[in-house]
Amino acid sequence: MSTVLLLSTADTDLLAARASGAPYRIGNPTRVDVSEELPALVAGSDIAVVRLLGGKRAWEDGLAALKASGIPTVLLGGETVPDAELMAESSVPAGVVAEALRYLVEGGSANLVELARFLSDTVLLTGEGFVEPQQMPEYGVHGERPYTQGRPTVGVLFYRAHELSGNTAFVDTLCDAVEARGANALPVYCGSLRGADTGLYEILGKADALVATVLAAGGTHASQASAGGDEEAWDIGALTDLDIPVLQGLCLTSSHAAWEGSDAALSPMDAAMQVAIPEFDGRLITVPFSFKEQGPDDVPVYVADPERAARVAGIALRHALLKHKPNAEKKLGIVFTAYPTKHSRVGNAVGLDTPASAVRVLDALRDAGYGLTEYPDNGDELIHRLIAAGGHDVEWLTEEQLAAAPARVPLADYRAWFETLDPALREGMLEAWGEPPGSLYVDGDDIVLACLQFGNVVVMIQPPRGFGENPIAIYHDPDMPPSHHYMAAYRWLENSFGADAVVHMGKHGTMEWLPGKGLGLSGGCAPTPYSANSPWSTRSSSTTPARAPRPSAAGTPPSSTTSYRRWRARTRTATSPSWSSSSTSTRSCPTWTRRRHRPCAPRSGRWSRRPSCTTTCTWTISRTTTRSTSSSCTSTAICARSRMCRSGMACTFSAAGRRPSRA
Fold first, then answer.
1. Tens of pLDDT along 460-470?
2. Closest alpha carbon to 90 in 116, 53, 34, 51
């Protein structure tokens, strides 16, 4: 049989050719040096097949060199239909080009054997004999895995090309990790989720959670579905109908060494293809578990990291278990952000009444059958009780509050958790904060936590990250390890309280500033032990409002994005109200419930919130209290948030041991 030179930008083509045993010489055009390596490959070959993702312009120098060599060439595009420009540049008949593409589109080692025979016969006239391309399954289940009734099932979805080329070791590693966690693994391959057969979704419907490595299902042009575009351009109806969590398992195009040594972790292409676009499908972003490493003949293969695969499996299992657990038995942690560490900033948010929202969440949980005991019926009482339980404001925290705190972590428990940390992270914490339990928020040897428990729901204040003379700077220091108290709080939520899920509420937390990679975390990144494997959700303050008049109103989408990607969380945002220009000369009154008391919108020509009013201002502070234009303020709200109040009224506020914040 004649020797075929196969140059393809799809490494799975090269892997299938190598597995076929046919006389192929293989290479990837992106890695073949045209002047030094290509002549040697051509010298030992009888015919060349080139498949390029990106068309002729992707490798013009190489195509010119092949043409100059005189070797018969079959030029193909990366899609399933012939590329007209490449077909015209081929030195063989168009029919041969079209048929050669069919062999590669169907894929698999058997078809690659027949491709070599086909070209040998039709171009070189050797009389080998060949069969037509065999149609391969578009989707199916990979291998045979045991199934145990009553266990949750985690699906693993990967590309058909990997199945046909035999590049499935990374899938097997992940499935082994799923089974080691006590779940059923269901590995499924497909060519694409776009327009997939209903039979594929019937298979996926057997799973309680799905780890997908296949890219987005909704469409091909995410930009068309953006605000102001075609809202129907991105359709994930079939995926949504599965009604299961879909997690993105990251299979990077870089090596493990490159990922491990990079703070950014993901290349721009991986960040776009593995993270940003799958987010349009509503997927939860996990961590990298597979990397491209050089194999024989300089052809990369996917190699899994067992530790990271176990992490993905653990996250998927925790999501899958929620379907098997009655609501009455589920436990939930609700964490209020507090930045900086002041009573006045607990639950801080822009345009979001965090305490009142938490009460509504508790109401919804009670109505859904969750096991709740008596809890406050309004946000003011909830926030006062949280602060009275200790808070984290060292200016007001008393020894009596520390001694009375019901939630605490014994030193022995904390040491056991601490010893499981990555050695580098552990050493960093010891250098920054000393030996456990540290000196902050401790009562004897116990680390105490500021929280309230209402049956199966805990409401907690997020542990502080910054201390000392400039705590705000420390909060944003990406090299500062978290404190023992910080670590103890999150480990207590999962290990002691037994939270099945965690909800963060407020403007943003502090996990986006912890040391480690910005995306695609490793086991040594600080957020890893804190977020554990529990499902997370964030209820954050505003994203960019409609027609925002100035940057200060635009919210903090970058912080939110970093947070939920590092936590693999589902994010819900409180969208800012629309803005319009006021034509009145009087003050405008915001009429929705708000906790942050901003000054009323000012004079004519300035921006104000809708609706505007022309009457004497009566500003709603909470559902039950109002501020009038009288000479003194009688508000009972948490007025520490009123540092921005400019009413000029005499302050009478003195709650929860706080002194008045304005004169």
1. 998 887 665 55
2. 51
